[in-house]
Amino acid sequence: MNEKKICACVGARTRDIQTIEAHYKDNFIPTGWNLEYTCLDQPEAARALYLTGLCLRCGGQLPKKFTVPGELAGDALLEQIYHQMESYRPFDFRFDSGAYRTSLSMRAHWYMEQDDLTLGAKNAQFLKLFHAEYQGVVEDWISRRHAQEPYTAPRRDRKSTLLRAVLERARACGDLREIEPILDYYLPNAQEPLSSDMDSYLTNYQFSAIANISYGCEGIFVDLVIEGDFDDSGTNRCAIGTFKTLRQDNDAGRLMGQLCGVLMYHTTRYVNENLHRYTPKRELEAEFRRMQACGGQKEGTA
Ligand SMILES: [Zn+2]
Q1: Which letter does DSSP use for residue 67 in this model?
Q2: What is the pLDDT of residues 13-49, one digit of tens each?
Q3: 6 CA distance to ligand 1 centroid (A)?
Q4: Coil vs helix vs strand at 220
């Protein structure tokens, strides 16, 4: 940690638990993780995992402490810390869909980034919590316990992840070369992300990508819509992206029409190429049971 000052707000210095809670809820911006401990191989009462953070109001450091059960040691201790890093998301409400209800969108988006880390990035972040003398032990534990994504719990794409992947794919193929220069904007994007309560995971591949073009009073719009079964919400239609050009001429109409085809093509191809990530959990579990019955050779493969 650097030498930055501690949050000086009244809300963080009082003994009144409700006031502290309210201050954190309104001002806590998480930034990372820190673990305080002396050893891993024996029980130790004072171990604590911190979600480090900054105070939105004064800019000072505002860590949130999670006490690690003192009786734990060895593999059980590492598993507990790993699990906390994966699931400790204080002051916001995380839905099963992966969306968040929050009073501070910066915080929810940081939590969503944590949820969406690749396995390699998550393991690297975990390893960094430990002193140099324990790096070997922890690396060994990771390779035994978390070297592969569980087959039945793959990392999912959110609605915004799908749109981003489709655009990256289309851009890499050169399919947006003529179209992007005429765009006024598209949403969501990095500066204006989809709100955290909307940006849920896509957990089923049984949907179609449909693009709609429409002329507005000042320009042409294209909406990329997914229709069918894409999650368990009961909703079967959702716009995942909107594109707008200010132009209304014939050439712009042709290019925006072309954009519809490009978006539909790349969405379909991308989902087909990443089918495991879009397969419902119950199907993955059934497939996993079949694989185990055949000798369990394929465990962990995607
Ligand atoms: Zn403060």
Answers
A1: E
A2: 889 999 999 999 999 999 999 999 999 999 999 899 9
A3: 8
A4: strand
